[in-house]
Amino acid sequence: MFQVASKYPLEIVQPMKEELTSVGVKELLTTEEVDQAIQGNEGTTFVMINSVCGCAAGNARPAIRLALAHDTLPDQMTTVFAGVDQEAVARVREHIPGYPASSPSMALFKNGNLVYMMPRHRIEGRFPQEIAGDLVQAFNEYCK
């Protein structure tokens, strides 16, 4: 498989990646890692399609960090980065049919099946606390 060049320099996106990986969110870099996390997991897998946009920085990533303080969490917390991990992002999007490509966005899978989706339009213009509340509600429903 060929490697697609990143749209953004690594020195710009690395701190944005580390905002999640530093709190235990696993970065998925290949299509194989995405498939293993989603399909190869008995249990729940959360995936955030991260991005350089302002709503990822001001809303989505802070919301995930807030949601991680909750007692009930998915078995796996993972992330891919739009415009950088392009093949991994494309594979995640294959697992979420029926939703237009958007970043940031967040998906929750249970036993390989999509059970919850938060596309960009449900992130933009909202406070991190509101988004985290929605995530916690989804975690309570699907991650027991």
Describe this structure in words.
By secondary structure, the chain is α/β, with parallel strands linked by helices. The protein has a single domain, classed as Glutaredoxin. It contains five helices and five strands. It has helices spanning 10-21, 31-38, 54-67, 86-94, 128-142; strands at residues 26-27, 44-50, 76-81, 105-110, 113-118. A five-stranded mixed beta sheet has the order 1-3-2-4-5, with helices on both faces. β2 (44-50), α3 and β3 form a beta-alpha-beta unit. α2 packs parallel to α4 and α3 (54-67) packs across α5. The longest helix has 15 residues, at 128-142. It starts with 9 loop residues before the first helix and ends with a helix.
What is the CA-CA span between the terminal residues? 38 Å
Q: Which sheet architecture does the biggest sheet show? A: 5 strands, mixed
- What percentage of the residues does DSSP assign to strands (E)? 15-25%
Can you tell me the CATH superfamily? Glutaredoxin
State the CATH class. Answer: Alpha Beta
Q: Compute the number of helices.
A: 5
Number of domains: 1
Query: How much helical structure, as a percent, in the residues?
Result: 40-55%
What is the secondary structure topology, with strand pairs?
Layout lengths: L9 H12 L4 E2 L3 H8 L5 E7 L3 H14 L8 E6 L4 H9 L10 E6 L2 E6 L9 H15 L2
Parallel strand pairs: 1-3, 2-3
Antiparallel strand pairs: 2-4, 4-5
Helix pairs in contact: 2-4, 3-5
